[in-house]
Amino acid sequence: MIILSIETSCDDTGIAIIEKKNNKVKTLASVVSSQDEIHKKWGGVYPSEAKREHQKNLVPALKEVLIKASFLKKGSIIAPKNLKKVLSREEVLLENLQKFFKKNSMKKPDAIAVTVGPGLEPCLWAGINFARALSLYLNTPIIPVNHIKAHILFFLFDRKEIEFPAVALVVSGGHTELILANSLSSYTLIGKTRDDAAGECFDKAARILGLGYPGGPAIAQQAELWRSKSRNRKFEIKLPRPMMRSKNYDFSFSGLKTAVLYDFLSRDKKTQKNKNYISQMSFEVEQAITDVLLFKLKKATTEYGAKTVVLGGGVTANTTLQERVKETAKDFPKTVFLLPPFSLSTDNAEIIGAAASVERKRRTPNNLSANANMKIYDTIKRSANL
Ligand code: KG4
Ligand code: ZN
Question: Does 203 contact ligand 1 (Cβ within 6 A)?
Answer without folding.
Answer: yes
